[in-house]
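Running this now, will post back.
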Amino acid sequence: MRTEFRLSGSGGQGLLLAGIVLAEGAILDNKNAVQTQSYGPEARGGASKAEVVISEDDIDYPKATDPDYLLALTTEAYTSYGKLMGKGLIIVDASVEPDPQIKARTVRIPILDTAATVIGKKVVANIVALGVLAGISGVVSQSKLETAVKNRVPQGTEDLNLSALRKGFELAAAAKATA
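Update: finished.
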């Protein structure tokens, strides 16, 4: 079974790293995974997008053609990519207002606020978002994702990032309980 993810926001939010970690976690879970990325010409502030395709079978095309999950941390990302969602679930930050023109089911979760106020570092919003995405999709086990986080984040920030990941899984569980 093929599962497609699109992670989108603005440059500097760390979503490219989140995509890499998601793909690595899937590989550690003995699945096939491929990650692609694109971003605007600005290093920070421009649009960025990472796509991850995870499958039990061979992956014949590396891009997300009809994502099962869209993560959008900015209004721009939500309106740009949300309109393209033919199926699946859109996960947006709670600061993003719903757009009635976007028909796909949308869940609003306080990702950015959780990183800033609960964890105390807004720089880990990408890892909170990763926990939310993995917790809702169930496609990668938490233990393998934790290993991938430890492998990929800067040395000395492992505990901070693992706290952010676990908080993301908690937010996902709460969202699933109220859905």
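Residues 2-109+133-153 form a domain with the Pyruvate-ferredoxin Oxidoreductase; domain 3 fold (CATH 3.40.920.10). More later if anyone needs it.
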